[in-house]
């Protein structure tokens, strides 16, 4: 490949990436690094970010919209799953060689090629990016102290203890990990009630109790909408007050592909939403010009609540409740309960606003395990 063509391809990759990744690549250019290295790194970052989106680990319109806050919420398990994806993907191209080309080589040669070129190169590229982000400092306004502070771009580097070698987290392992974070049966209702009235009893400082009381009606309504409908985080964030329909028990959401849909809401959770809407204006100083359903208040001005804040909120409450979870796992909880009731993946995919049934097959795994448990204990 000519130097000019290589540069052109690199620049096209560069344009697709988030600004914080672009900043690191510009840093590498200044060292300097070769265009070939920059190109290979940019491809690996695109591959990783695309995987994060496809797995629903982060929520954005495309990879360029992924934020540093999304990286803050990653953990070692996610990287292990990504390494498994790299190991198992059957149609990936390696340095100009397709799987058909590699099939002519011996099995050992193909496995070595896959591991060395894919996993090691990907993890090396990610490790260098995370190290840079964890060491590079930025200035940020801290609302609690009312002043600017200096902090690392990334507060923790989860790549420090990640080995280059291949680690296989099978689909069954992944499903088992997800299952541990689900809220099923009465546990979902107990969790919502805990946020509504129980969490405050665990707090000792007056400041923490004041903050909890200020937002508990809103926070409970957010959980009620997640568990009552199974909508995505991005869909909830973008929901407006006018999208909520009490009589029809649904909320209008914009699904992937910009398709409008009516997400049905379980009536058991609707009262929490109604209570929040009735108090929304007074709690967040919202007038008719503020369209967002879920609000926060900054300098006494109402604004739409961001996805990162919602994820932190759910992490806080669920950790205190004793079962840490995420918005995406709450969505899985709804999917699992819906499959239990219907045994129909097509119905579940329609409830969740998915285009096909492949993403819902995890629920069959969970229900099969429950069946086995029932049979095992049938005569004991």
Automatic annotation (TrEMBL):
It holds the Pfam family Phage_integrase. It comes from the Bacteria. It is found in: Cytoplasm. SUPFAM superfamilies: DNA breaking-rejoining enzymes. Residues 15-134 form the Core-binding (CB) domain. Keywords: Cell cycle, Cell division, Chromosome partition, Cytoplasm, DNA integration, DNA recombination, DNA-binding. InterPro entries: CB, DNA_brk_join_enz, Integrase-like_cat_sf, Integrase_catalytic, Integrase_recombinase_N, Tyrosine_recombinase_XerCD. Transmembrane segments: none annotated. Residues 177-376 form the Tyr recombinase domain. NCBIfam families: PRK05084.1. This is Tyrosine recombinase XerS. It comes from Enterococcus viikkiensis. The gene is xerS.
